[in-house]
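Hi R.,

As promised, here are both runs. First protein below:
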Amino acid sequence: QVQLMESGGGSVQAGGSLRLSCAASGRGFSISNMSWYRQTPGKQRELVATLVNLQNAYYGDFAKGRFTVSVGDAENSSYLQMNELKPEDTGVYYCQMYGRASRGPENFWGRGTQVTVSS
C-alpha cells in the first residue's frame, strides 16, 4: 500500500526557515493533490497548504506570504518551504496526498514531523 514519509523538521529560532519534504512509496499511485496540515498545541489540525492538480496553491491565512508548497524533485513527492517562522508555528506537520491507488481514489497521510520554533 502507499506510504508517506515527512522529513526536514527540526528546531529553529524565530525568523528562521525550514523546508519539509514528503515522499510517497508504493506502486500504482497517481497523485492529483498534495497538501500539508499541522497540529499545534491547543488547536485542531489545520490546513497549511494544498496544491490542487499539482498546479494551484492555496494556503491557510497564517501561511500566506511565508510558506510555499511545491512538487518535489522525486516522483510523488512534495516540499513545504517555511520562512519567517514564528513560535506559534511550533507543532507537528503532516503530509497528505490525494490520488488514485489500485482500489480507487484515496487520501494518504504521513506520520508527521516536528517543527519547533523558539522565541
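And here is the second one, sequence first, then its C-alpha cells:
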Amino acid sequence: QVQMVESGGGSVQAGGSLRLSCVASAYFYSKHCLGWFRQAPGQGRLRVASIISGGSTNYADSVKGRFTISQDNAKNTLFLQMSSLKPDDTATYYCARVPYDSLGCRWSAFRDWGQGTQVTVSS
C-alpha cells in the first residue's frame, strides 16, 4: 500500500498563492507518473496537473499558466505551486503516483488516496 500525505492547503483571497506538498511512503525507480487531483463538494475528482518521471508535465485547461507541478525525487516529494488563485480552485487536493508504461499513466490503478489538503479561495 502506498501512502500519500498532502499538506500546504489553507485559505487565501483570490489572486493569492499556495504551495502544496505531497510525500509518498516509498520510492519508485521505474518510470512513473505523479499527479495532483482536486475534488470540490458534489463533484468528481479531477486531475489538474501531472508529471512523468520528472519530465513532461500536463495541466488541466482550468489551471494552465497558474499552477506548476514539480518534484524533489531525493525527498520523494511532489509539489504544486498555485498562483493567481480563483474561487473555482476551492477544493480538496490529492496527490497520486502510478506506474507509467507503454499504455501511459495508469491512473486507474491508484487506490491509496490520502486525506487530501483543503484549499479555500475567497472572492
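A quick note on the second one: Residues 71 and 78 are 4 Å apart (CA to CA). Let me know what you think.

Best,
J.
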